[in-house]
Amino acid sequence: MERIDDRHIEEIRHFLEESRGELERLVPLVRKHYRWGNLPEPEKASVYAVDGSRMARRLSGAIIYAVSASAVGDDIYYWNDIGTLFPYSNADDRIRIHMDTLEKRVGALAAETSDLVLMDGTISGAIIRPPHYANSTTRKLYTAHGRNLLEASLDFLEALDLKWREWRREFKKGIVSGPSLLARGREGKSVFQVLMEKGSKSLKRNLWWVADTENLIVLFEYLEYLHALDKLLGGEIASVAKTFYRSDIIQTVAEREKLKKVPIMVDTPVVASLTDRKGYLRFSSKVGSKEALAQMILDLMEHGFFKNLRDILVLNGRKIEGARIRPAYVRFADGGLIYLLEVPEKQDFEETLAKILSVAEDEYVIPLEYAHHSVVIKKKEFDAYVNAVLSALVGEDERFLDFLRYGREPLE
Question: How far apart are CA 122 and CA 13, in angstroms?
């Protein structure tokens, strides 16, 4: 692409001109129904920000990946792990869930000793959109194994509660590193061996679980994620998203004004056009397609687990209709970018925003910026680390090489 093709410019210009026309029609209508509010005075507080990162390398017989999460505030905390997976379906999603689990854990542990924890991204996405593969796997396994699976899951969650105390002690040291998913077992023992040693009657009763071990590990990973999310929701938290594609305000205005055609546009440019002043605009989330919560998760809630998650969910039977979260678009500085802020309904919105403003500077929130830069896993460093690990392993046993070759080697 040595020179810019004029046709490309024309195509993009056409799109932008059409969008600007829609924008000019929408802004007056939005002003009729929404008010841009002034930011409250900052309130000094101990605020931590959490972010995560992941990196992976696909080899001939395995995927080796790294996940990391950090919390930055009065101190800095890190949680790092290197994991391996067979390159089956949903491997990428499982790696992302592993990272999300560490983020939620770090956030929950930081919340125990701070006034507020800020998460990068959205809280609502974690709550109202269960991973499809995990939900379907849970339903399939619960249909097949029923009571046995419920009892084994209860045993697993009780073991996680005990493990939480250990993680809390390690977290206070500042850096947690090493295996972080109980679902993957411990010290060469599978999770099933670990639970049986802890007295799991369900697993000892018969061998119902043997034919489904891999799917059960996937389910336990999902329970581990929900356990961390539930712990996080027990603290004072909020989230700030940099990238989001929502049209709640546009849809609301279209309904109230009885527009025949709903403009195909996201809220951000409309909200940004209302004013260039710092401030915020609160709105209500529009209910999208309703996800269904797996019955086993509801049954685990009935047994006393995931109470914070249950309290924040808006359920109609098993259907997730939303979450008790207050969203708002916020601009931290005059002329700055628009961000999406989410605050649980149990917290005072203005007070939470005032705490965030105590650590905001110019356009953004300083701890979130530091957390992002501190946690990024750099590809060059990751590759060097993996190469060193693989060299050590192949030095022990050359037969490992069949799993560890890389299909793109001839091209590099």
Answer: 32
**In whole angstroms, what is the distance from residue 12 CA to residue 15 CA?**
5
Q: Which residue has the tokens 């008010």?
A: 35
The C-alpha angle with vertex 103 and arms to 353 and 291, in degrees rounded to 5, equals 85
Average of pLDDT values for 320-347?
96
How far is residue 119 from each of residues 10, 67, 149, 369, measured CA to CA in Å? 40, 16, 33, 11
Tell me, what's the pLDDT at 410? Answer: 38
Hey, where are the domains in the chain?
47-246+280-377
Q: Please tell me what DSSP assigns to residue 290.
A: P
Beta bridge partners of 176: 79
Which range is least confidently modeled, 21-30, 112-121, 401-410?
Answer: 401-410
Give the pLDDT mean for 348-363.
Answer: 95
- CA dist., res. 338 & res. 332, Å (int): 8
- The one-letter amino acid code at 90 reads N
Across the beta sheet with 116-120, what order do the strands follow? 175-177, 76-85, 63-72, 47-58, 116-120, 237-241, 339-344, 325-331, 279-282
What would the pLDDT profile of 255-298 be if each residue is shown by its tens digit? Answer: 999 998 888 889 999 999 999 999 999 999 876 666 788 999 99
- Identify the bridge partners of residue 214 per DSSP, sorted by sequence position: none
What value does the mean pLDDT of the chain take?
91
Q: Scanning the structure block, which residue is given the tokens 């995560």?
A: 52
Compute how many other C-beta atoms are within 10 angstroms of the C-beta atom of residue 84: 11
User: In Å, how far are 188, 405, 411 from 408, measured between CA atoms?
Assistant: 31, 9, 5
Does pLDDT of 408 surpass 50? no
Strands 237-241 and 339-344: antiparallel
CA distance 240 to 42: 17
Would you tell me the crossing angle of helices 248-256 and 267-274 to the nearest 10 degrees? 80
Residue 126 — pLDDT band, cuts 50, 70, 90? Answer: confident
